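Two entries, shown back to back:
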Amino acid sequence: MHGTGAIALVGLLCLAAAPGEEDLSFADAAPAEATDAQVLAAHVAQTTRVVPYGPTLELAAGDTVFVELPVRLTRPLPERPRVVPLAIRAPRGLWVAPFGELGAPTKGGVLVRYAVRATSAEPGAQLSLQMALEVRGPDDAPAGRAEVEQTVKVTASAPSVLEIEADRAAFIALQAVAQKAAEALPELKHYLRLDRVDRPPSPGRVPAEKDSVLERFLAHRLRADIARARLRHAADAKDLALAAAAARAIGALSDKPTGPAARARAIEGVTTDQALALARRALDDLQVDEAEGFLNKLRTSGRLEHAELAETLALLAAVNYLRGRDAAAARLIGAARCLDPALQVKLTRPALQARFQEASGKAACEGALAVSAVTVERRPADDGVELVVDALLADDPHGLVSGGQIELWGFGGALDKSQKVRAEQVDGAPHLVARFSGEPDAFSYDVALVKVLAQDVSGVVLATYGDPDPASVPVKDLVDAGVKVPGWVWWVATGVAVVGGATAVGVWAAGRDTSPTRSIGPIDVRF
């Protein structure tokens, strides 16, 4: 404006976009002829409307307005001017943007705009706002000052589903423009945050030729935040259907956690119970990225117990529900209920709790997850032979088993071979399959001692076979074998192993990942 590089708003909203960016200014058109972009721009203009300054301001709960205040200048408008709020005194329930915008110049002064939002205030509340504003130049010297004293009367708001969808679209469009502007300011990457509205960096950090880019970032980020705040307010509506629509709109504002939310450092060094409590709190507050970051980190932490995994899956189901991924949410809640049929999730947001109860009633499991059958085959291989152990899984309709561990045990209770495997589909059914290679004379026996551990991606053991004592499984020979150890010898060996059961239990208690003290094969009998 007037070559000063200050933010200029014309009419209700005129945020001229550079070529290739979304233009969110409203073009005058008949409603029947208005494009989606024009309808969206009209909605943004309405929800960021400008009102003249007065001693009393009426504001609907959850809404934001820009108040236009005349400021008399004590010297000519400086180059690269900016608006700085001073000594803001606002009670709980009232939010004021931590910076202002310059509007149109007036005779001897300039119009300044500041944003005011009614946050947690109840309709009917009367809140007192006091603030001082200054217009400054790049030398930080004031060029004008104004005092603000207002009574804000909070009125009731009644958002609709259509407005919720419009606010969701507005946030995405406005945030996209802010993101592009931020990318064009790499020198300010540590000062420009997209996830909150804070004070802009000092003028000395901004090259003069990039003033307009910074202004575009600040203006669009603020208006995106206004759209998000409206959604957050609608999510607290008493109408559960309306609240659920707003909550899902908030969840759809992003695809996944990024940056600090993905790193989830808040749960480092805390107990699993505390981490789950943080995730529940984030969900109840509709901080979906933070909640998903916590739960993703927990899921792969390797420290979950059976019941903790069930709650983690249920909370991830809530995240996916908020993201609009209903199929994934149904699968996760089903998996959680299969793990713990009596599972109860302690969510305080009514819309989420109602959804959990509804989904839980449709997520019954017919039976407990189990390893229903194990087969062992001796097959020819390029470098000799291989022993293929195939474990069939039953009652895992939600694909909870991601992999596991298959072990071959030998005479005397010693672990001989172990292999970590991924779950795979064989003829449409889930299996765990391990392939152990050896020389042609290896595995020359007709019975194998096998142990199978079916696990979730987090490492929680969901079903076992041959645990704690390895189970004997006949070996089907698909190779013309030489001398094989007969089955009766195996049973004798098994009997010896039982007599030496204390040794076997000692090895098991020491942990499956501990290297065995000896490795003699499943059986080593000499005549």
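entry 2 starts here
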Amino acid sequence: MNELRQTAELLQRLTTGKHRFSTKKGEKPTGDALFFSGLLDGSIRTDRDAARLLFGSEENTVAYRSAKSRLYKRLEKELLTVKIDRKKDGEYQWALVECMRMSLIIKMLSSYGKSIAALAYCNYTLTIATEYQLTNIQYEMLRLLQLDAEARGNRKDFESLTTRRKEVARRAAAEVEIEEEYLRIMTITARNSAPDNTDINRAFQALRSLEERFAKEESYSYRAALFRLKVQVYSITGDHAASVESCNEFDRFYDKYPKFSTALRRGEVSHRRVAEYILMRKRDEAKAESKVLKALLPEGTPNWCYCMINYIELCLQMLEFAEAAEAVTQLEKYVKKRDTLLMFKEQVKLYKGYLWYAHQSGWAFKLGADLGQYPFVRRAPSVTKADFTFSQKDKQGANFAFIVLLFLKHLHADTLHKMSENSLKKYEQRYRKDKPTRAFTFSKILQAVLSKQASVEQIIAVCTPLLSKLSELPRTLDSAEILQFEPLWEHIIQRKILHIEHQQALEEAEAARLAAQEAEQAEGELKVEVGEQK
């Protein structure tokens, strides 16, 4: 049902509601219109929902299956004829959709022998594809024109078209090669966020080779793939300033050629710049760029949700709890929707849990943030495997974030003795083995804090070299590190010291009470003894 919903959402977005499934004022909605609106408003999430709405029964009958199939076909036809808004979606997007649609019409005409009409559409399509540098479409149209020149016996036209087609093929080869190199390095980094030196050196040499061989290539697809490759290669080699400059360079390209620019493409550049600023430890710049990115993306879309997650984590890592709480409230409105990714739902739970702790512990108030207006800070979060099923399956160990939240929950309740070190040890063995990450190192620090017999002095002695190692490791918006580990350590150890001082004060008060009680009892006994002697 999700694929049908996404198709309906795209049609609604492209037509702003003016399509065959929209109901005119005063008219009774058709079955297709009911089905369509149910997909959009969330009342239809399953086949049972749709069957109940259309036929009053949840049974998956032949009539229901026919109605669903009919809706599919009508949606497809509507999408094939929809007009792209050049101002709203950008000229490049319009050209891409227009050329693909024309290519389909040309193939239909050609297959039925309507060559005159096909050639008319072919010249129109080639003009657009050339202007917007759509190499695959150009290659296809030039071939059809070559066949026409061959049929007419016009050698001059044929040779001219052949020369053009060879140039397009050369450009297409450059685009394919650089895109494949980008996908290769992304495949490596998806498996390991810190590739080994062999992979890094090979990627760097490949980038240099491609830049030298295709130095004069100007096509948009090539430039876009080159931008992505340069940013990724510079990032993994640690030259984050060069990555940022690559982003700035591509922004300048969009400024010079606005026909290739859309909000989504600008957003991609901005998103990469945010990531590089974080790696450079320039959190203020990253946060400012995140605000720019939020404004570029349509609210409620998956890309916007990813942007909000980055923004919230930046706020939390900068200990700006009030801004984080407001952004979480804004994101939660969309996360509650029917087909939101489970990852987004669990991230919101985590953020609310950390904000609960910041409020209840007084950490937020101490930094000038009053979170009392947000309902989620009043109730302790549930931190169990059932609450974070997606994180449990994460092969990169993102569930460390909820282990830390569980630790903070026990810290607040003065029940750290109830938390076993085994959860941290299992986490290390399962997810972070042989991976020197910040989360792995902080896990060692938490284990030291949980040591039952260790004094504060012993804990600090064990943690000091670990903290030095922590500061040397690269900082990212890691899903395992919701609050920056260094200030979190300072907060934890201060709470630990205050807890110990409180316990000592209680013990001293109790000892003083017992001593006073014993003295009073002894004095009473003495008085009794004296009285008996008299």
